[in-house]
Amino acid sequence: MDLFDNKRFVAHLDLDTFFVSVERLKNSKFIGKPLIVGGMSDRAVVSACSYETRKFGVHSAMPMKLAMRLCPHAIVVRGDMDSYSYYSRVVTDVVRETVPVMEKASVDEFYVDLTGVDRFFGCSQFMIELKNRIKKESGLPISYALASNKLISKVATDDAKPDGRKEILHGLEKDYLAPLKIQRMPGIGEKTSVLLLQMGVSTIKILSEIPVPMMHNLLGKNGIDLSRKANGIDPSPIISYSEQKSIGTEETFMQDTIDMQFLNSELIRMTERLTFQLRKQERLTGCVTVKLRYANFDTVSKQMVISYTASDTVLLKKVKELFAKLYDKRMLVRLIGVRFSHLVQGSQQINLFEDTEEAVRLYQAMDAMRARYGDEAIKRAISVKEREKRERSPHF
């Protein structure tokens, strides 16, 4: 055994067409059929689609009306985030109980660090057994790739799908990436892709041959990062997963109050600010906590495990429900707080199964204004009205 061998072994696991797979698990009649998960109206958007629909050009975030025009024989199922959250947690528990270090990258993908496992069990066999256990305990297909770092394992997982596995041996990272199109490289978006293609850079091999100073002049720090990745180098660590990750805020009032309209407006203001932070960080929350402190300093809190979301509408409803359960003494309130925990990476759009394309754009426009002008740039009228009313009245 070479005690100085510092090779890393990193695997990326991805639940294949996760929403579609869950729907097929619930209803076997969908197996092998072209399936679209999303809102039921023509004005809704596609949240997920099966491989059978993709060959017709259907993809996620596409307007439902266009998707049905491309694949008119597709079956459309309304998304059920409760089910997706449940199965995500089932798989999370299996992975967490099995591997030394795990990072939950989103509701349906994970990174695991198996460095050291190779000395005892062998990483290849370990991952085969993990894949089989996930399939047995969840019923869901999952693909994975094993490599020396996060970048290679993530890229290679796409080649392992559906329901497959792939291993990139140490030292072959650059050779593996070389023939791939630049669009396969994480970190290359549409604009960067267009720029590179205009320069004649169509493959990762060509990208890897561009001098670093030129990449820096072209794309700044991102250019240096892309140059390193194009050569198969990615030192980024596995960020150990913890359900305790959270964001929150609380407000202690200048005067204790029993005014329900004001308390309601404060809950709205806090929740909207936190949901914006979630979407800005591309995260979803799976648990909501509301805290309440009375004038006599008695402090109480309640929490609720929920389906993963970053939707204002959903979270406002949950926050109000928790507050209604907490506020039972009819006493003056000194402080209220809201906290979101059990955070995972993900886009809020996967929750908006009933939202129209226009509604999604509205959310995006509001978030863009907040990102440019600050968290308080746009908010619901009630939260502004009640706060101004309180500030104007010295006897409030």
From TrEMBL:
The record marks 19 as: Substrate discrimination. The keyword Glycosyltransferase does not apply. Mg(2+) binds at residues 14, 108. Transmembrane segments: none annotated. Keywords: Cytoplasm, DNA damage, DNA repair, DNA replication, DNA-binding, DNA-directed DNA polymerase, Magnesium, Metal-binding, Mutator protein, Nucleotidyltransferase, Transferase. Its cofactor is Mg(2+). Its EC number is 2.7.7.7. It is found in: Cytoplasm. InterPro entries: DNA/RNA_pol_sf (IPR043502), DNA_pol_Y-fam_lit_finger_sf (IPR036775), DNA_pol_Y-fam_little_finger (IPR017961), DNA_polymerase-Y (IPR050116), DNApol_IV (IPR022880), Rev_trsase/Diguanyl_cyclase (IPR043128), UmuC (IPR001126). GO terms for molecular function: DNA-directed DNA polymerase activity. Residues 10-189 form the UmuC domain. The keyword DNA repair applies. Binds 2 magnesium ions per subunit. SUPFAM superfamilies: DNA/RNA polymerases, Lesion bypass DNA polymerase (Y-family), little finger domain. It catalyses: DNA(n) + a 2'-deoxyribonucleoside 5'-triphosphate = DNA(n+1) + diphosphate. The active site is at residue 109. It is an enzyme of class 2 (transferase). Poorly processive, error-prone DNA polymerase involved in untargeted mutagenesis. Copies undamaged DNA at stalled replication forks, which arise in vivo from mismatched or misaligned primer ends. These misaligned primers can be extended by PolIV. Exhibits no 3'-5' exonuclease (proofreading) activity. May be involved in translesional synthesis, in conjunction with the beta clamp from PolIII. Belongs to the DNA polymerase type-Y family. Monomer. This is DNA polymerase IV. It comes from Sphingobacterium daejeonense. The lineage of its organism: Bacteria, Pseudomonadati, Bacteroidota, Sphingobacteriia, Sphingobacteriales.
